[in-house]
Specification:
- InterPro entries: Acyl_CoA_acyltransferase (IPR016181), GNAT_dom (IPR000182).
- This is N-acetyltransferase domain-containing protein.
- GO terms for molecular function: acyltransferase activity, transferring groups other than amino-acyl groups.
- By secondary structure, the chain is an alpha+beta fold.
- The chain has one domain: 3-Layer(aba) Sandwich (Aminopeptidase).
- The protein is 21% helix and 25% strand.
- The chain contains 7 helices and 10 strands.
- The strands form 2 sheets. Strands 1, 2, 5, 6, 7, 8, 9 and 10 form an 8-stranded mixed beta sheet that branches. Strands 3-4 form a two-stranded antiparallel ribbon.
- The longest helix has 17 residues.
- It starts with 9 loop residues before the first strand and ends in a 15-residue tail after the last helix.
Length: 287
């Protein structure tokens, strides 16, 4: 059974690519002058700003990650999901206009508003080599102290997607939001394996292959990686991820991390998505 990637209380953002050139990583999502001054059609969608507001509260505010590195180059090519909650409006009611069966407008008064409470992202291949055990690894760095050998689960050749930036604000951490977001992201990848690839132009694909993990292929067969904080491994195990002990552990911004893997069965998604194999571009465009 597939899981929808968008609902009334979950927003789905496709890769925004150059639209995120307007984002200033040194400032919070609520203070983005370049974006505020941009043409509406070229501005960054509010859904991405909502995702960043959750990440800022959790990773920057709670865990002390410097704000200037919370936003990274992978954000431009990632799929994002944002969960919302309906909460009572603090100051005033909202008027919502709807049409009845006769085409007449009716005004309803809403005493609630939606706020972003959780987010997750899925990063397509290619990826940099895996961190060296015991190293101090800059989040999603393309260089640095990185291992060259294969590991137990990943042979250094098979492409994989990376799930990460899972964050839920404190008031909603026992409400099943993490499960909702993880299930939606995995269901999307499972059902749309060709859509998580970075593009279909042959020259571009070959260039990406050469840039990937020691010239590894970027073809994806269902392998999913998370860089999990040591203290939340049990959370990821609930969703079928297993710790790869051969990867050891490493430091990311003062927090010890390990690698955890899961293999999805994407055979049904491959059959449904064959139409995209002959496509000339990505089936998803920026909103």
């Amino acid at each position: 059974m597939s899981v929808s990637t968008r609902s009334e209380f979950v927003d789905f953002i496709v890769p925004l690519r150059e639209r995120l050139d307007l984002y200033d990583p040194t400032k919070p999502s609520s203070d983005q002058p370049k974006n505020d001054a941009a043409d509406v059609a070229k501005a960054i969608p509010q859904g991405f700003m909502d995702a960043m507001s959750v990440r800022e509260q959790v990773f920057v505010g709670e865990q002390g990650v410097p704000i200037e590195i919370e936003f990274d180059e992978d954000d431009q090519r990632s799929f994002h999901w944002v969960a919302f909650a309906s909460v009572p409006a603090k100051h005033s009611s909202q008027a919502i206009v709807t049409a009845d069966g006769h085409g007449q407008n009716k005004q309803h008064i809403s005493n609630s508003t939606k706020i972003p409470i959780g987010t997750i992202r899925l990063v397509p291949p290619p990826h940099p080599p895996h961190p060296t055990p015991g190293s101090r690894h800059t989040i999603d760095a393309l260089g640095g102290d990185l291992r060259k050998d294969s590991i137990a689960v990943h042979d250094g050749q098979e492409g994989y997607v990376k799930l990460g930036r899972l964050a839920v604000i404190p008031e909603f951490r026992k409400a099943g939001i993490s499960r909702l977001l993880i299930d939606m992201a995995l269901a999307f990848a499972r059902n749309n394996p060709y859509q998580v690839m970075p593009g279909w132009d042959p020259a571009k694909l070959e260039s990406l292959r050469l840039q990937s993990d020691r010239a590894a292929t970027i073809d994806w067969k269902g392998l999913v990686l998370v860089h999990a904080q040591v203290g939340v491994q049990k959370v990821w195990r609930k969703y079928g991820f297993e710790t790869d002990k051969s990867m050891g552990s490493w430091d990311e911004e003062g927090i010890e991390h390990v690698g955890m893997w899961r293999k999805l069965d994407i055979s049904a998604g491959r059959r449904r998505s064959k139409v995209w194999l002959a496509g000339m571009g990505s089936p998803l465009g920026s909103p």
